[in-house]
Design a protein that fits this description.
Chain A has 804 residues and is an alpha+beta fold. Chain A is built from 20 helices and 33 strands. In chain B, the strands form four sheets. Chain B has a five-stranded antiparallel sheet. In chain B, strands 11-12-13-14 form a four-stranded antiparallel sheet. Chain B has a three-stranded parallel sheet with strand order 1-3-2, covered by helices on one side. The chains are: A alpha+beta (804), B alpha+beta (284). Chain B: It comes from Actibacterium pelagium.
Chain lengths: 804, 284
């Protein structure tokens, strides 16, 4: 029957790359048939819950567990004293620091884990938590990183103040590291000699990824065969297995880590948390499975936050607006422990992508990490490592420079973009941008929204406002961002010494269907859909006949997991490369079956054909069967392949975003009238999934820009610990997004794809923020900090005298 | 977010409810839609050893319009308020306000009685009831009594209701003239940053009656008699509206929270009230 189909029809039948294949995951998700960690119920399973510190900084004088232990149904109450003999009262962090698993003499942030109650059910565990008596002695609280660097108060008494930290010398007992990139002296000289210098402090507030499913695990120690099974909400199951092995001493082959369905991660589920360690210990001690699932408040207050960067910037230019230099000093608030999830050699992630989309010849970046009495974390919330911070910084500095130059911000960007002919482009802060065509994207975006028309309308609005005809201002937010994703080349990217390659293993079944297993794990990205599309195109079997499996370390090949938009750039590449190994063997089988030389057959969509004789062919389905039922001289039976892909470079997705916003100066309310998002993620695997990713990323960007924060009072109390106060937008708050694209394939990636999940967040945050700032530009505003919630916008208007 | 243990009761009649209330005093609470009480229990901020579910109690649900009198049973949901044509005709401000409470899922469960009886200054119905000059109907071991909405609220979560009483219904006269319920909030599901309920009656060009109440700007709803008085007898010129706003600002007492500082809230209250007055006047 295939003979009758045209080439196009055969291509369509595969459901391969470029088609809007519907998500295969959604049948179970939309019917409530997903299988999440909290759905896992094992025989005899116990439940854990934490006693947490109400104080941000205090000595733990005593812990009395008697009353809790006396409660019917309580099996154990673990404290640091119980874990110390095992050496498990502290654990290493991904950033080379260590973190208390349970309070060892003191607490450093509100909500810190003090004791772990294990009980027969979740309700008894919660009751027992109330019965654990902890005596605290309050200590002075430091919530401001600048004050922390001046204070005599020592937060980390466990550290030798004179010894180097994981990233070099420490300047002060509350200082963690200094990281420098670029040329300091040369940059300062450029700034000194420049026609124009714009200077600004840009604060990117502390926020939180807040996935719909909170973090949790079920630890199950089988004492008979010595095997530990750990189900959990892990974005990097293989790395977690290695970490658990290193911490516990259990050999890695005796540990099986399984990430089942995961309800969103956004970086929150990359690291290891005390709950995992305590659950494992409790299961080892009790010999039965132990479940721990945090609640929403615990998630917001204690598991990994994002951002909290104070970025002091200077940018210089000629009178004509050509940028000559960029200087940035960042004070990074890391909380009580340095638990940032970054590649080892990058303690501030890829913050050195902060030259953005611009050809800036000279630049310097320094980052100082600081301990404070806040929760640890510092993960990449829907962005590659600290790239959102970098993009926000440069896109704000460009706007401030435009004000300084009295120039249009769109034009200022245009004259400073890296030109298409400059790629591959070596940035002043050390990256080699693989590809880009920024001018084309920018011009397309400006034209799509009628940029000049918008500016004319805005000017009229300012006149109307001044004449008392309206109380609403209009802001036009511009952003051109460059992402850096796909960590990364093993030569400079590792986590805990594990190179950041990724992997794919494919088995073709005799009847022409297949299973592919990857080292990544989907948290909603649709891997089961898109990776099958990559393979369908590569190996010529229908996507619907290919199962994608991830997340079980006993079956999947080793990989570093899913975060930082790395799945498509790294595991997607591994998938294509493994597919090509399959195809290479299939070619030999086809040649044998067709009785021609290997070089005389060529791949054609779903088959190998004899060159010049397309009527002579073997379909991949036929070839698969032959691989299992024929003795082919010189070829092993079976059709399998595995690829471990070490990317030669990062990929550099980019995009041009424009936001049009109306702002009520009296209430501070914002109304997003229009949001246009052009993304260039290279080769597009599934346009529908890309669109969904863009919508989601923009919505999280809107959240962060317009209100989402983890705020503390001076006592270190978290003020935004529930969803009443922590802003999670609904459909009501979200505008209709217009999406668009250009395609600039990555030259070094097997299929030219670059990753897209995080671009809209990276580009969206500055775009929303720039719109707010831009609305007030005509009234003298240079910069106002996020989050732009109602009262802060009102205050900006008030400070500018707009309330009469 | 795991509540402490509690006894659950589901009586069929009010006598059954009252007997548990009398026996356990302030250790017992009645449960209507649960959208305030259950989260408080899960956060362990409210301990309720004896929880009495009202959903099976006869006669607490439904809307009746009898002549000029509207009566709404305590267990009537916000969703039922939105979709009751008789009520919309008799007091359209009820629908306008209910549509601004939380989201559809909450409105299917949340009730008028729970909203007005809980005494949460963030709830929208208490201010609205004061604007409507509603009467609250209570029943206790000593029988039934009525309290004016404008006299009911004492402080945050403190009302004139005794621990052994149940609020069974609210009643008010159908409205005439213009109405508006304006609410500023940070997002769907949020309590008001500032909200204003306004009822205005016009004769010729003159305002003959005005009732104004504000929400979440003090530890109780604020019925601002002075604000209404500033409008009566005027044609709602700028000076009159400004005088009403000034009067309202004299009555409210907002506190700083995550929604913003006091100065902002006062400005927002002014803006919201101005909008509500303008909107209501345009509907007279």
């Amino acid at each position: 029957m295939n003979k009758e189909l045209s080439r196009e029809e055969r291509t369509d039948a595969l459901g391969g790359m470029g088609c809007k294949r519907k998500r295969v995951e959604d049948a179970r998700f939309t019917q409530g048939k997903g299988n999440y960690v909290d759905d896992i119920k094992l025989p005899g399973m116990l439940h854990g819950d934490f006693v947490r510190s109400p104080y941000a900084h205090a000595r733990v004088v005593s812990i009395n567990t008697d009353a809790a232990m006396a409660l019917d149904g309580v099996i154990a109450v673990l404290t640091a004293a119980d874990l110390a003999p095992l050496g498990l009262h502290w654990m290493p962090t991904l950033a080379g620091d260590k973190q208390m698993v349970l309070a060892d003499g003191k607490v450093l942030f509100q909500g810190q884990e003090v004791a772990f109650v294990v009980a027969k059910d979740r309700y008894i565990a919660a009751d027992a938590v109330e019965l654990v008596e902890v005596e605290y002695e309050e200590l002075p609280v430091l919530t401001d990183p600048f004050a922390a660097l001046e204070s005599d108060v020592v937060l980390r008494e466990d550290l030798d103040p004179t010894a180097d930290g994981a990233h070099g010398p420490r300047k002060h007992h509350n200082h963690i590291f200094t990281w420098e990139v670029g040329e300091k002296d040369a940059t300062e000289q450029v700034l000194d000699e420049a026609d124009v210098v714009a200077e600004e402090m840009v604060y990117y507030h502390r926020t939180h990824p807040c996935p719909l499913e909170t973090c949790g695990c079920v630890a199950s120690m089988d004492k008979v065969n010595g095997k530990l099974t750990l189900h959990g909400t892990f974005q990097a199951p293989h790395a977690i297995r290695t970490v658990v092995s290193l911490i516990s001493g259990i050999e890695e082959h005796n540990i099986r880590v399984i990430s089942p369905d995961i309800g969103g991660g956004f970086g929150n589920k990359v690291g290891a948390y005390p709950g995992y360690v305590c659950s494992v210990v409790a299961s080892i001690v009790t010999g039965v499975p132990v479940k721990w699932v945090e609640d929403r408040m615990e998630n917001l207050m204690t598991t990994a936050f994002a951002r909290d960067y104070w970025m002091k910037g200077k940018i210089s230019a000629t009178k004509e607006g050509k940028i000559t230099g960029l200087w940035c000093h960042t004070t990074a608030d890391h909380g009580g422990f340095d638990a940032c999830a970054d590649p080892t050699k990058f303690p501030a992630g890829f913050m050195n992508i902060c030259t953005g989309s611009y050809d800036i010849p000279t630049a310097y970046l320094a980052v100082d990490g600081v301990y404070t009495n806040k929760a640890p974390g510092g993960v990449s919330y829907r962005c590659s490592f600290r790239v959102t911070e970098a993009a926000y910084f440069i896109e704000r500095m460009i706007e401030v420079l435009a004000i300084e130059l009295n120039m249009d911000a769109a034009e200022l960007r245009r004259i400073n973009f890296i030109r298409k002919d400059q790629f591959p482009y070596q940035s002043a802060l050390g990256w080699e941008y693989d590809s880009g065509d920024y001018h084309t994207a920018w011009d397309k975006a400006l034209k799509a929204v009628d940029y000049d028309g918008l500016r004319a309308e805005q000017a009229q609005r300012v006149e109307d406002f001044k004449a008392g005809k309206t109380r609403k201002l209009m802001g036009i937010g511009l952003t051109h961002f460059t992402e850096i994703v796909g960590a990364g080349p093993v030569k400079n990217c590792d986590i805990l010494g594990l190179g950041m390659f990724d992997s794919c293993e494919i088995r073709i079944h005799p009847t022409g269907s297949a299973i592919a297993r990857l080292g990544t794990i989907s948290q909603g990205q649709g891997h089961a859909t898109t990776f099958a599309q990559i393979l369908a195109t590569e190996i010529g079997l229908p996507a619907d006949s290919i199962t994608i499996e991830e997340g079980d370390t006993d079956t999947a090949p080793y990989g570093l997991g899913t975060y930082g938009s790395r799945s498509t750039p790294v595991a997607g590449a591994a998938t294509a490369m493994a597919g090509r190994k399959i195809r290479a063997k299939a070619q030999m089988i086809a040649a044998y079956l067709l009785e021609v030389h290997d070089d005389d057959v060529e791949f054609d969509v779903d088959r190998f054909v004899v060159k010049g004789a397309p009527e002579k062919f073997k379909t991949m389905k036929e070839i698969a069967f032959a691989a299992y039922n024929q003795a082919i001289p010189g070829i092993e039976p079976g059709l399998e392949a595995v690829s471990y892909y070490d990317p030669p470079n990062m990929t550099y997705p980019f995009g041009a975003y424009i936001c049009v916003m109306d702002i009520d100066v009296d209430t501070g309310e914002t109304d997003i009238r229009r949001f246009y998002a052009l993304d260039d993620c290279g080769t597009r695997i599934n346009p529908m999934i890309i669109e969904g990713q863009v919508h989601g990323g923009l919505t999280e960007a809107l959240a962060v820009a317009l209100g989402q924060e983890i705020a503390y009072d001076d006592m270190g109390n978290v003020k935004t610990g529930t969803l009443m106060d922590f802003f999670l937008p609904t459909a009501w708050e979200v505008p209709n997004y217009e999406t668009d694209h250009t395609v600039t394939p990555s030259p070094h990636h097997p299929i030219g794809a670059k990753g897209v999940g995080e671009s809209p967040h990276v580009g969206g945050v500055p775009c929303f923020s720039n719109a707010v700032n831009d609305a007030f530009r005509a009234f003298g505003l240079r910069h106002t900090h996020m989050p732009h919630d109602h009262w802060r916008i009102w205050k900006t208007a008030n400070d500018l005298g707009l309330h009469g | 977010m795991i509540p402490a243990a509690f006894e659950y009761y589901r009586p069929k009649d009010m006598a059954g409810v009252l007997s548990v209330l009398v026996e356990h005093g302030d250790d017992a609470r009645v449960l209507a839609g649960g959208h305030s009480l259950i989260p408080m229990m899960k956060l362990r901020m409210a301990e309720v050893p004896h929880l009495i579910d009202l959903q099976d109690v006869e006669g607490l649900r439904g809307i009746s319009v009898d002549g000029n009198t509207v009566r709404i049973g305590a267990m009537t949901t916000q969703n039922e308020i939105i979709n009751d044509d008789q009520l919309v005709a008799a007091a359209p401000i009820m629908r306008e306000a209910a549509l601004q409470i939380a989201d559809p899922q909450v409105r299917y469960m949340g009730t008028v009685g729970g909203n007005v009886a809980n005494g949460d200054p963030g709830n929208d119905m208490p201010g609205l009831m004061q604007c409507l000059d509603a009467t609250f109907h209570l029943v206790g071991p000593d029988g039934e009594r009525e309290v004016a909405a404008r006299d009911f609220y004492e402080a945050a979560y403190m009302t004139d209701r005794d621990d052994d009483e149940v609020l069974t219904a609210v009643s008010f006269s159908s409205t005439v003239g213009g109405y508006a319920y304006e609410k500023q909030k940070r997002k769907i599901g949020d309590y008001a940053t500032a909200a204003a309920a306004v009822l205005l009656v016009k004769d010729g060009d003159t305002c003959t009656s005005a009732s104004i109440a504000m929400t979440n700007l003090s530890d109780t709803p604020i019925y601002s008699e002075a604000a209404g008085a500033a409008l009566v007898g005027t044609s709602l010129d700028d000076a009159a509206v400004s005088a009403a706003i000034d009067a309202m600002l004299g009555d409210i007492d907002p506190t700083q929270d995550n929604r913003g500082p006091i100065e902002f809230k006062r400005h927002a209250a002014s803006t919201i009230l101005r909008r509500a007055i303008t909107n209501a006047w345009s509907r007279t």
